[in-house]
Design brief:
Layout lengths: L2 H10 L1 H4 L7 H13 L3 E4 L3 E5 L2 E10 L4 E9 L12 E4 L2 E2 L2 H100 L1
Antiparallel strand pairs: 1-3, 2-3, 3-4, 4-5, 5-6
Helix pairs in contact: 1-4, 3-4
């Protein structure tokens, strides 16, 4: 595999690298690359960023578990979209330029690590979202059950009122029927008396 093709693979990973857990992907990548070049790094100092001649320079200082310390400078160049590519074009370690091949290998390792971290982070987020959705669904189910219970009580109340009204109207109809019946009886008696008087 030639250097040009290998470097194109690194650049194609830029979009994924930019989604790294760090808020500053350039610092995050520089630390990862440096960690692959220097083993046993136990602590990082505050990083620095500066721009010059269309390039971004990130400086990271470190301490190792065996008591050594040093620093690395990662150089980033602009891509086609005008933003800096998140894979370093060059790295210097303790003032000495690192061989380009070693930079590429260290960057590839870092990119793989970023892929894994991004996948794990996505999995955690998906799990959290699923849990939240489940809780929300349970809340909605409880509310729906409460609403159904309220609707049932309301329906029962309305049915009871309707039955009371129907009974009341039936009673009124019966009273009206009795009055009409009485009036009809009285009218019949008066008519009978009138006929009898005429016959006499």
């Amino acid at each position: 595999m030639n250097k040009k093709f290998l470097f194109s693979i690194i650049l194609s990973s830029t979009a994924i690298v930019a989604c790294s857990p760090s808020d500053t992907p350039y610092i995050d990548m520089c630390q990862k690359v440096t960690g692959n070049l220097v083993e046993s790094i136990s602590e990082w100092s505050e990083p620095n960023k500066s721009e010059s001649d269309g390039s971004l320079f990130v400086t990271v200082a470190y301490s190792t578990s065996v008591g050594d310390s040093g620093s690395a400078v990662c150089k980033y160049v602009e891509g086609d979209n005008g933003n800096y590519v998140t894979s370093p074009r060059a790295v210097s370690l303790n003032g000495r330029d690192v061989e380009q091949k070693k930079v590429m290998v260290a960057t590839l390792k870092s990119t793989k690590a970023t892929f894994k971290e991004s996948a794990e982070e996505t999995k955690e987020q998906a799990t959290e979202l699923a849990s939240e959705a489940s809780e929300k669904a349970a809340e909605l189910a409880v509310k729906a059950e409460e609403m159904a219970g309220d609707a049932k009580v309301k329906a029962t109340e309305l049915a009871g009122k309707a039955q009371e009204k129907a009974t009341e109207l039936a009673g009124q109809a019966a009273d009206i029927a009795d009055v009409a019946k009485e009036k009809a009886r009285q009218a019949a008696l008066e008519a009978s008396k009138s006929v009898q008087q005429k016959l006499e």
